Amino acid sequence: MAGESSSNLSIIVHKHPSESHLSELGIKSWPKWGCSPGKYQLKFDAQETCYLLRGKVKVYRKNSSEMISEFGAGDLVILPEGLSCTWDVSVAVDKHYKFESSSSS
């Protein structure tokens, strides 16, 4: 999408989705990833959907003090392709995740 900057990219947080919804998505078959508390510079080259088993995260725009999202254990989160941000992890994260493959020509 021409002209789209990371400032328009929004993170979608579904607070505590139902077990049936998680089951439909096949969350338990997705790979797992975790990190300890700290600050992490992240760039999403593909859309990521993740489900936090534990943790607490505040997300800030890259090189900014503007918080754009906050989520934690029990949340289903969709992070858009092209997002550059800082994750401020206050409680260690343990999550299932899946990247959407973009159709490259």
TrEMBL record:
Domain of life: Eukaryota
Pfam families, per database record: Cupin_3
Coiled coil: none
Residue span, (S)-ureidoglycine aminohydrolase cupin domain: 22-97
Protein name: (S)-ureidoglycine aminohydrolase cupin domain-containing protein
